[in-house]
Each structure stands twice: as structure tokens, then as C-alpha cells.
Amino acid sequence: MNYLILVRHGQSRWNLENRFAGWVDVPLSEKGIQEAMDCAEELADMQLDVAFTSKLSRAQETLFLILAKQKKTGIFLHESKKRDEWSYHPERFDDSEIPIYSDEHLNERYYGKLQGQNKQEAKTVYGEEQVFIWRRSYDVQPPGGESLKDTYERTIPYFEEKIMPELEAGKNVVIAAHGNSLRSVVKYIENISDEDIPKLELATGKPLYYQFVKGKFIKEE
Length: 221
Ligand SMILES: O=C(O)[C@@H](CO)OP(=O)(O)O
Prior knowledge:
Pathway: Carbohydrate degradation; glycolysis; pyruvate from D-glyceraldehyde 3-phosphate: step 3/5. This protein is α/β, with parallel strands linked by helices.
């Protein structure tokens, strides 16, 4: 039996300041670093085999801190042309290494014009209900940005194409990503309806564990 582990990045500086981040590349806060280190401790006894993350540093920082506590060594696969050979042949990795793939399909939802704005101020300007709809409805886009449905439609094909084969091969897979890209993944694997998805909140730095058994995901509480 193998596992899928989902980790939302630790608190970022803009989580701390209560600002919409989206694709703005804001690093972790001190608390976020501590959350990622606590998560690393929790995962230390579990052998991770392959790692996926986004192109945003808060998710990557979280992943690197997690991997620092693993016995195997993470190897980050860069996309530069020169390193094509090495980067695109992960079958060369041996059992002592954890290939790390980063891809913008796993990025946070693109928050459009809201990026950088304080969430409390946005409520004052647009009203609490409107801001809730933008933040948590499934298919309403925030101004100039992606709805959760848009995020789902880019995240899930990547999940199916790149991540599922690793699970099917019996690997323990960790994904370090974001509130909304991971809400998409949880919606998909737990089959959560469009009506129920607004209730799903993911805590920063707290791993979610799914056993992968005969093609099915079983959540471990
Ligand atoms: O600011 C963001 O990018 C996200 C995650 O912190 O916010 P929200 O919780 O509103 O989706």
C-alpha cells in the first residue's frame, strides 16, 4: 500500500498580512517555516519517493524543508535546455533519491485584480458576501482571475497525467502546493460536489494522508 500526501505550504508573509497572493511569489513567514519544519518532523518516518510542487517559492520552501528530514535525497528537476538529458530521464534515479517536479499547473488560483489587496479591505469595498463568493464558490471568477473551476481544469489533467502514474507504480507521493490547487485535488479524489466545495478549508503546513489501494483513495483521519 502506498500514500498520497497533500501539504498546503506553511503560512506565507501575505497569509500573515491577510492579503490575496494568487500567483504573486511571496515567501513563507517565520511561522510558515516553523509549520513546514513541524510537518517535516511528522513525515520523517515515512519514506517519500517522488515530490511535486508548484512554481511558487512558498510551496517549494515548504517541500524543501520536508525533504530535509527524509533519508532519501531530493533532486530538483530544472527545465533548462542544457540539463534536458538529466532532467527528463528520471528513470536514471536510484532508490536513494526523490525526484522533485515543479509545475505551474499546481500554482495557486490566479487571483487577478485582487492580488495584493487586503482581504478585510476587499470586504469593506465589495461586501462580505461578494468576497466569499469570489474566494469559495466553485465557478465564479474573481475580477480578471480564475474561479476554482478554472484552477481545477488545469490542475486535474496534470494530476491525472503526471501524478497518477507514480501512485499506480506504488510510490509514496507528496504534493506541496496551495489552498486552491489542493482544494481542486481533494475535490477530485473525494468526489466533493460543487455545492459542498465552499466548505472545504485546508490548514497551512498540515499534511493530508490518502492510502492508494487498487486505484482508490482512502483518507486517513
Ligand atoms: O491569497 C491566496 O492566494 C489564497 C490562499 O491564501 O487565498 P484564499 O484563501 O482567499 O483562496
